[in-house]
Amino acid sequence: MNRLKLVLPTPEYKNKIMDYKSEFIENGDSMDGTAGLRNTETFEEWYGAFCDNLKEETVRDGLVPATTYMAISIDGGRLIGMIDIRHRLNDSLLNLGGHIGYSVRKPERQQGYATEMLELALIECVKLNIKKVLITCDKDNVASAKTIIKNGAELENEISEGNRITQRYWITLD
């Protein structure tokens, strides 16, 4: 595929990231894989948390170390999506969240970008020495399930919580 590259956020991407946030809010979409972008008022607040959460020594209370990437198109430099890799799991992530979360802009969906983003993120997981990757999605999110399965995942089980059913998939890396 090679249409995307994963890039670490820096202040030079401030406008692209804030436009991404605005677009998702306007569409009422879930902003998975954005390291809490929806919940911050400013880019600077979000970027500070992103930097803190990169390392075990500075990770914020209640969170695990994680690396958030922007998926940038190689041709044109568009911000297509964002993907977050959690370096380890806590109990909540083990049950419902997993190692990886991601989102793709609405106009860019159903073009294989999520599959490519996840493929690139799995390469980063190998570098982080994560040998077995847990990825979850809502049972009704068929597109996400297809993306996960295309990257070699096997469904372990489903967990019911109220009206929500979460599917838990594992990918074993070499």
From TrEMBL:
One Pfam family matching this protein: Acetyltransf_3
SUPFAM superfamilies according to UniProt: Acyl-CoA N-acyltransferases (Nat)
UniProt keyword terms in alphabetical order: Transferase
Leader sequence residues: none
Entry GO MF terms: acyltransferase activity, transferring groups other than amino-acyl groups
Gene3D superfamilies: 3.40.630.30
N-acetyltransferase domain residues: 33-174
PROSITE patterns attached to this UniProt entry: GNAT (PS51186)
PANTHER family in alphabetical order: ACETYLTRANSFERASE (PTHR39173)
Protein's recorded name: GCN5-related N-acetyltransferase
Organism expressing this protein natively: Alkaliphilus metalliredigens (strain QYMF)
